[in-house]
Amino acid sequence: MSSGLFGILTSFDHNEHEWKTYKSRLTQWFVANDITDVTDATGTKRRAILLSALTEGTYRLAADLVLPKDVQTVPYDDIITSLDTHFNPKRVGFSERHNFYAAVQRQGETHSQWAARLRGLTSLCAFKNVEETLLDRFIMGMRACYEKEKLYAQDLTGLTLGKAVEYAENVATARAAATASASGAGAAAAAAGAATLDPLLKISRSTSAHKGQAAAKSSRLAKPKCTTCGYTNHKTAECQYSDYVCKKCNVKGHLRRVCPSKVNYVDNGADDEDFGDDVLTGQY
User: Fold this and answer.
1) Which helix (H) or strand (E) holds 15?
2) What residues does each domain of the chain span?
3) 70, 131, 181, 219: most buried by Cβ count inside 10 Å?
């Protein structure tokens, strides 16, 4: 409120905040700043502080709750009572007990958080033996886990909710540490093994690549060549250059590139074979 006051009094929005918690914080703020029934006998200051701390929507709600009176003139205690009645309606005991017994530990909820939430559910249950009931529900409502199995095997003599929570947390922490340690050791072993096998893997890959290249070359060599042009992508009987005249031996039926004759080059003035080489390149 001002620099001379202790603590921070935030605004209250009933759509986002819980009235019971806010009311408790408001009371403690009044105590810290010495605003009591003695220093504020009429409650005027406390009423002004409360109404100033309400958001617009919640202020309108408070005003409606005290109608036909004007909320600015209603005593502070009456405003508090109206808000209490609205936000904390009377609960049916067995309905609250049903919610308690139906509660289970949520996914991702720690054992401590589960115990705290469970204790909050007992506030309106009116159990005769709260601690024993809490202990039972804490263990029975735990999600399936190793900690639950260990607690089921514990001796009930002297076992309290506090001890059960502490035991479960210790077991969970120990298991997490052991799992992390095992994972780290496994990763280190895998890395060491990979480093040891790395040269062998390189040799294996190199050998495989060499074998692949040799196989491809062998495959190319295994294909029969056309005796007319020398290419392997068609049969001799299908060669379109069967009518060409060799420029080397001047004999019809093959190209110079596959000429078996050892005679000197004979230039017949034709350029058909040159055209044929150009056509053959990348085409057949």
Assistant:
1) none
2) 19-87, 93-166, 223-284
3) 131
